[in-house]
TrEMBL record:
It comes from Trichechus manatus latirostris (Florida manatee). It comes from the Eukaryota. Coiled coil: none annotated. Residues 231-275 are annotated as: Disordered. The gene is USP10. Its EC number is 3.4.19.12. Residues 247-262 have a biased composition (Acidic residues). Transmembrane segments: none annotated. Deubiquitinating enzyme that removes conjugated ubiquitin from specific proteins to regulate different cellular processes. Found in a deubiquitination complex with TANK, USP10 and ZC3H12A; this complex inhibits genotoxic stress- or interleukin-1-beta (IL1B)-mediated NF-kappa-B activation by promoting IKBKG or TRAF6 deubiquitination. Interacts with IKBKG; this interaction increases in response to DNA damage. Interacts with TANK; this interaction increases in response to DNA damage. Interacts with TRAF6; this interaction increases in response to DNA damage. Interacts with ZC3H12A; this interaction increases in response to DNA damage. This is Ubiquitin carboxyl-terminal hydrolase. It catalyses: Thiol-dependent hydrolysis of ester, thioester, amide, peptide and isopeptide bonds formed by the C-terminal Gly of ubiquitin (a 76-residue protein attached to proteins as an intracellular targeting signal). SUPFAM superfamilies: Cysteine proteinases.
Length: 479
């Protein structure tokens, strides 16, 4: 089960407080300082001080000098992000399982998919590794942790010759490296404030992916602000938080906003387009796409809003949706919007359509299996959704202005990772991941610390015990 961990440690917690005063000082600093520092904690200490509810563990008062003040933090080199070139070349890594002593399967499954993503791996390998002695404190805890994670993996030794049993397809053996426990990754949930660390809530692999990508993006934005302190646009975060645009915010922008312009589309139709200031970081360069949401109202110009995304949310509730292609077509279908009123409180009939404005190099599709009910409950959709290894985004899904600018190779993707949710419940279950391994030229199934070779058919084959939840695709022209 991958429900919420209730924490551990009973009578031994108070006994060890005095003996662990130095790391507890670090813990207090991590929780209360504007900058972050990591101490060395054993898994039991980490559970005791970070997972156990605060009221059950009494932290000693911290009275020492705060070494990680805002001005004292050691930043990454100023020019680092300015010299990043995203590399999409596949790399053959020796797989390693991740030890799960708590309820971290949703994190472990996500980490394995990100390690299998070549541009993500190369980006983190580009950033230098610093020891605690070199950088005792940091303003980029998430970047530091993922640099450390990627450096846990090394190039895979030359695989042995294929073995073949009579009547079987050729299968290669693979020797995984030693499994390890990435406690420094788990620690981020508490060091960086997140609702994911709240006691009693259900963990979700898609929500955790958003936490990671937005967190990395925000840290890189902050580094960019250090490079360009007078650039006001960098104060705007373009982290793809949501696909919905607040109507009140749209009204506040009003006519003539610098983020608004009139655009002439097909058949000389004009539309007013709104767009936030999109500040690029290497993370948006890998995962960031844009959708165009157009509102149609009779006797008015079309109103369009460009919205960024890291994961493309696909509603699969309809009985008509049986494949990923069905879900994509449903995403861009024109729909009526009920209860829309003007500034004068007059109700008007409008419709809305979403199209894809910009496709990212790595496209993550989120099959929305968890449906929230009006009563506050949540149900899981067990239905099977077919998904291809090679996915072509048809021109009909694209915005009118970009349809003819995207060649087929820019719209074709290949699957490289699938995160599954096991179980029938929306409030529990388990997560595993299948990843494509370039050295093996085949697929691996990773369940926490267990790694085994599987066939491509096993990746796309529907089963009752698990359902695909997140599909990770890479653009074929970048393979």
């Amino acid at each position: 089960m991958c429900g919420r961990q209730d924490g551990g440690g009973g009578g031994s917690s108070v006994r060890s407080l005095e003996a662990r005063r130095v790391p507890l000082k670090r813990a207090a600093m991590a929780l209360h300082s504007p900058q972050y520092i990591f101490g060395d904690f054993s898994p039991d200490e980490f559970n005791q001080f970070f997972v156990t509810p605060r009221s059950s563990v009494e932290l000693p008062p911290y009275s020492g000098t705060v070494l990680c003040g805002t001005e004292a933090a050691d930043e990454l080199p100023d020019e680092l992000l300015e010299t990043v070139t995203l590399i999409h070349k596949p790399v053959s890594l020796q797989p390693r399982g991740l030890i799960n002593k708590g309820n971290w399967c949703y994190i472990n499954a996500t980490l394995q998919a990100l390690v299998a993503c070549p541009p993500m791996y190369h980006l983190m390998k580009f950033i230098p590794v610093y020891s605690k002695a070199q950088r005792p404190c940091t303003s980029t805890p998430m970047i530091d942790s993922f640099v450390r994670l990627m450096n846990e993996f090394t190039n895979m030794p030359v695989p042995p010759k294929p073995r073949q049993a009579l009547g079987d397809k050729i299968m290669r053996d693979i020797r995984p490296g030693a499994a390890f426990e990435p406690t420094y990754i788990y620690r981020l949930l508490t060091v960086i404030k997140s609702s994911l660390s709240e006691k009693g809530r259900q963990e979700d692999a898609e929500e955790y992916l958003g936490f990671i990508l937005n967190g990395l993006h925000e840290e890189m934005l902050n580094l960019k602000k250090l490079l360009s302190p007078n650039n006001e646009k960098l104060t705007v975060s373009n982290g793809p938080k949501s696909h919905l645009v607040n109507e009140e915010e749209q009204e506040e922008q009003g006519e003539g906003s610098e983020d608004e312009w009139e655009q002439v589309g097909p058949r000389n139709k004009t539309s007013v387009t709104r767009q936030a200031d999109f500040v690029q970081t290497p993370i948006t360069g890998i995962f960031g796409g844009h959708i165009r949401s157009v509102v149609y109202q009779q006797s008015s110009k079309e109103s369009a809003t460009l919205q960024p995304f890291f994961t493309l949310q696909l509603d699969i509730q309809s009985d008509k949706i049986r494949t990923v292609q069905d879900a994509l077509e449903s995403l861009v279908a024109r729909e009526s919007v009920q209860g829309y009123t003007t500034k004068t409180k007059q109700e008007v009939e409008i419709s809305r359509r979403v199209t894809l404005e910009k496709l990212p190099p790595v496209l993550v599709l989120h099959l929305k299996r968890f449906v929230y009910e009006k009563t506050g409950g949540c149900q899981k959709l067990i239905k099977n959704i077919e998904y291809p290894v090679d996915l072509e985004i048809s021109k009909e899904l694209l915005s009118p202005g970009v349809k003819n600018k995207n060649f087929k190779c820019h719209r074709t993707y290949r699957l490289f990772a699938v995160v599954y949710h096991h179980g029938n419940s929306a409030t529990g279950g388990h997560y595993t991941t299948d990843v494509f391994q370039i050295g093996l030229n085949g697929w691996l199934r990773i369940d926490d610390q267990t790694v085994k070779v599987i066939t491509q058919y096993q990746v796309v084959k529907p089963t009752a015990e698990r359902t695909a939840y997140l599909l990770y695709y890479r653009r074929v022209d970048l393979l």
